[in-house]
Amino acid sequence: MSAPGLAPHLLTARPGRLEALRRRPVLLAMAGLAGLGVAMVAGVALGTVAISPGDTLAILAHDLLRWPVAQTWPASMETIVMELRLPRVLTALVVGLGLAVAGTTFQGLLRNPLADPYVLGTASGAALGAAIAVLLPVQAAILGLGLANLLAFAGALLAVAIVNRLAGGSGRATLTSLLLTGYAVGSLLAAGLAMAMYLSGSQLRQIFFYLMGSFSQADWQSLAVGLPIIAAGSLLIMLRARSLNALLLGEEAALHLGVDVRRERAILLGLASLVTAAAVALAGLIGFVGLVVPHIVRLLVGPNARLVLPLSALYGAAFLILADLVARLPGELPVGIVTAVVGAPVFVLLLRRHRGGYQL
Amino acid sequence: VETRDSNQQAPDRSVRRGSSIAALLLATLLLAGAPGPALTAQQRAGAGFPVTLVDDTGAQVTIASHPARIVSLSPANTEIVFALGAGDRLVGGTDFDDFPAEAVPLPDVATYNGLVRERLVDLEPDLVLAAGNGFTPDADIEWLRGSGYPVVVLYAETVEGVLADIELVGRAIGEPGAAADLTGRMAERIAAIGEAVAATGTRPRTFYQIGSEPELYAPAPDSFLADMVKLAGGDPITTADPAVFSIPLESILIADPEVIVLGDANYGVCPADVAARPGWSDMAAVRAGAIRPVDDVPVTRPGPRLAEGLAALARAIHPGLPLEDPPADPVPCETIEP
Fold first, then answer.
1. Which of A109, A300, B162, B288 would suit a FRET pair with B63, their CA atoms being 20 to 30 Å apart?
2. How far out from the chain centre does Cα A353 lie?
3. Are A214 and A284 in contact (CB under 8 A)?
């Protein structure tokens, strides 16, 4: 797990407490795994309704592992653990993982530290899709996903496709034109969203709720659809970490390293957009995770995508499970509020304590 | 796991099976003549069940037995259940429940953000009274139905519809007699108000101000509120489109209201503030000082206090109207300084 020759500044940076960690990616991965484990246990064990840790464990052992545990709990408790909390925690895991991986990819691809999964119009596209679904008088569901989820998924992908096309086609677009086209298309879609919200009358609350992100409607069915897309997309991105590293050095340098810049950029863009679209379809727009988790990981281990991608996935998943737990304990706050309120100060603190150079 | 799965997939079939069982039961009852005399209260309570009814979304709902654990997902539904004397069977409500006082401490199953599913499952309800038109989010209603809870969705578009909904709740909770009494009394009061306002011989142009921040909001044409203003003897000034509640000041100026009813009086809007708005001084209502606050909750909440709300609205439009109903408490007006 080393990255020869890719980050020379690593060797010249003034060592600090954080610098020491840079050489311990295995330690960080283990800490991440432990954190994820704690987050999952807490996410299933805690909630609006109090269920004792013993009952929670017994229900999990009985239902998941088929252990012959005597059934002493009421059926409602089993429903809460197995049908509400477990799918919810797993959905938060998958969405956090996906957003962090997509964010890392977009930041690397666009070589822009302000890039996040929503930068190329996916957010506005998904939101407009969901808003249109709320306004339509039809009720439809495919594979357990409601119309709002489906149109959000389609809207996000369509928005990226339009941005990519307008900016010059697959792989040919310059980074600046991609970013600016993304901004322009996003603004146009946002106008459409504002119009839809204006016309929505009593349905406004539903659109607003979608814009803030939430896991309150998570269930096994939608997870079964979203999980394969996000898992496969994230895995394929991680397998292309080398290309992402090369692209970070600039197009010319990447070409000299033997990377087919256009092709790799198009593939990574497509995969990251797919992962983002699936994430917003599952949980609405959750900000901050995709922007800041990759930065925090880079502060800890440096810019090598081979390390940043899997560690971001771990940290993003654990962070979002905990954020969702904080959001639902007082009774269903939008999770986007929690991610920002918890994440922003942590990020600023890390930036301030970090004395060494920081690069994408 | 198996038992839960079969429970969850059952509702579609069980609804149909339930309705045929109900039909069968009905047929046997008719054939066998009236049931024997000495029924205990417990038996009477269970006698009408299982009951199959069609809710306001057109869905057929079968309620297997006399509901003992009811969850209400709107303040209006909560009020209806209490008014039918079944408040002691309510185990969950909303964070907006404010009437009657016993409803306030109920666990909040519905919040501004939708259903708190965990809390609902924990309460093990045998009847859920939801609200339509997006008040209870569609996804939550689907989830409730998919999870096998008997859900009755209520959404009244007219005053008549509210009375029908109260009777629907009466059948769902096994209190059809109490519901018929209540709607009978409400219909009488509504009719009396209708007669009183008709006797005035006037039908003033009325702007019911739903809100004024950041824009002005008025009833949409054919909406529930427009219906209320008409029944209260006013000629409602409405917006241009059934889907739009905001109204430009120009439209109000052209319509020249003779009465302005402040539906937002509970939220710190006072007659003096309205009269002082630039451009409003030439309106007939402002010149005549006919700007009157009402308590919007009984006026807009589709529940058992609707006749009271209508009386208050009728008095706001026709001051000094001779009605048997005691006048509502005046709405205290405290201007909230920006």
1. B162
2. 26
3. yes
